[in-house]
């Protein structure tokens, strides 16, 4: 069943796009990640222009984040003060990312840069996840206890001036740290169409030293508003947001997330992490190979 994507300027099979959204939603429900970091590569593999894939994926992440944010707000697991600082940095980062996006479009290197960034990010994150998962499995097999978790700021965060108290996060740190973290995530969201949770959550725990109870909710709060800002900026500057594509992805992801949540209850966390690490590394390797292989179509059209 084909449907025409007005911004991507090509017909696609509607069921395939919904299926791709379902795969991302399934992974989101199984592993507790936003899944946005896999949406853009999967769309690119299917033939969607990278610019449209990144912009539309950000829009889909916005819709998918709404229910999660409201759920965490009702439980009181969102640090609104920390979230506001992260959102402020994310909006600034989205504007900076828009400038970088325009520069890359003007020199015709958008596709290449998006692919390289994905290879670096997914390769490094997948490698770290695989290493930690293998260590956890080895400890479990040998009957060893996991090392106690340590919650502390990174030394660079401690050195920053002008400290604020973030009571729900249990922190007394400079707001410059979450502001810069939000800016970095905003740039990534603008360039890659990711929610940024796969970068944000580890950074909030290991760099800022936040209490784990509020990390996911605060991350989702930031993702919701930053992806909204990113969608708006993309709509005004690159004009690459394809709402038809985003809606089809959202339909699939909502359905897939429900199934993924049920599966996650029956599988050990160690196995879930190593499966996710494998998937991430496979996508990174596929994108890396795509940088070296001659494509089937040498020329691609980007929305002007």
From TrEMBL:
Q: Looking at the Swiss-Prot or TrEMBL record, what is one Pfam family this protein matches? A: TauE
List UniProt keywords, sorted A-Z: Cell membrane, Membrane, Transmembrane, Transmembrane helix
Does NAD show up as a keyword for this record? no
Give the stretches traversing the membrane.
Answer: 12-38, 44-71, 83-107, 113-131, 171-194, 214-233, 240-259, 271-289
**In its keyword annotation, does this UniProt entry include Transmembrane helix?**
yes
The UniProt entry lists membrane topology as: Multi-pass membrane protein
Where is it mainly found?
membrane
Where is this protein localized, as stated in its record? Answer: Cell membrane; Membrane
What's one GO-annotated cellular component? plasma membrane
Hey, which family's this protein in?
Answer: Belongs to the 4-toluene sulfonate uptake permease (TSUP) (TC 2.A.102) family.
Recorded hits in PANTHER family, A to Z, give: MEMBRANE TRANSPORTER PROTEIN MJ0441-RELATED, MEMBRANE TRANSPORTER PROTEIN YTNM-RELATED
Q: What is this protein called?
A: Probable membrane transporter protein
């Amino acid at each position: 069943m084909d449907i025409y994507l007005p911004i991507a300027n090509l017909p696609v099979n509607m069921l395939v796009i919904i299926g791709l959204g379902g795969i991302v939603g399934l992974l989101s429900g199984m592993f507790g990640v936003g899944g946005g970091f896999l949406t853009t590569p999967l769309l690119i593999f299917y033939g969607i222009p990278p610019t449209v894939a990144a912009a539309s994926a950000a829009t889909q992440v916005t819709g998918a984040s709404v229910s999660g944010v409201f759920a965490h707000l009702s439980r009181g697991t969102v640090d609104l003060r920390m979230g506001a600082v992260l959102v402020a940095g994310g909006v600034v980062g989205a504007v900076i990312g828009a400038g970088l996006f325009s520069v890359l479009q003007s020199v015709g290197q958008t596709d290449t840069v998006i692919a390289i960034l994905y290879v670096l990010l997914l390769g490094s994150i997948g490698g770290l996840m695989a290493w930690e998962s293998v260590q956890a499995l080895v400890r479990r097999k040998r009957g060893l206890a996991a090392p106690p978790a340590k919650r502390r700021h990174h030394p660079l965060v401690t050195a920053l001036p002008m400290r604020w108290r973030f009571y729900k996060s249990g922190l007394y740190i400079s707001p410059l740290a979450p502001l810069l973290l939000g800016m970095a995530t905003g740039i990534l969201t603008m360039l890659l169409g990711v929610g940024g949770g796969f970068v944000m959550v580890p950074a909030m725990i290991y760099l800022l030293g936040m209490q784990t109870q509020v990390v996911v909710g605060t991350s989702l709060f930031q993702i919701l508003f930053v992806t909204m800002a990113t969608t708006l900026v993309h709509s005004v500057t690159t004009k690459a947001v394809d709402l038809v594509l985003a809606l089809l992805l959202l339909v699939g992801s909502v359905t897939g997330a429900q199934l993924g949540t049920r599966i996650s209850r029956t599988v050990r966390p160690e196995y879930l992490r190593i499966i996710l690490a494998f998937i991430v590394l496979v996508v990174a390797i596929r994108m890396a190979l795509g940088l070296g292989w001659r494509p089937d179509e040498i020329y691609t059209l980007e929305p002007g």
